[in-house]
Specification:
CATH architecture: 2-Layer Sandwich
Mean pLDDT: 96
Strand content: 15-25%
Order of helices and strands: HEHEHEE
Number of strands: 4
Distance between the termini: 12 Å
Radius of gyration: 12 Å
Number of domains: 1
Strand order of the largest sheet: 1-2-4-3
CATH class: Alpha Beta
Number of helices: 3
Low-confidence stretches: none
CATH topology: Translation Initiation Factor IF3
Helix content: 25-40%
Shape: globular
Largest sheet: 4 strands, mixed
């Protein structure tokens, strides 16, 4: 579990990163979960977007993906959300 101070640090870091993926009309598939897990393993901090055609809100998608990947939801703003999964050897925070 991350503290509110750590969450603020992560939000600041997330401002500078690009959106790397999206949740579309197919929702959250096994393929998407695998993609998010791989991205988290490589980067620790990832930003995704939820398309208007998706069957989820950004908050629902963020919570479901975080649970599936063992990650933390850092923030949800509009259609975008940020997830964080600390690297055991070199965490960002």
């Amino acid at each position: 579990m991350i503290t509110s101070k750590q969450r603020a640090q992560l939000r600041a870091m997330a401002n500078g990163i690009e959106t790397i993926g999206q949740v579309g009309k197919d929702g959250i598939s096994d393929n998407l979960v695998t993609q998010v897990k791989d991205a988290l393993a490589a980067r620790q901090l990832v930003k995704y977007r939820v398309l208007e055609t998706a069957p989820y809100t950004a908050k629902e998608a963020a919570n479901e993906l975080a649970a599936a990947c063992g990650a933390e939801v850092v923030q949800v703003i509009g259609y975008r959300f940020v997830l964080y999964l600390a690297d055991k050897k070199e965490p960002l925070i």
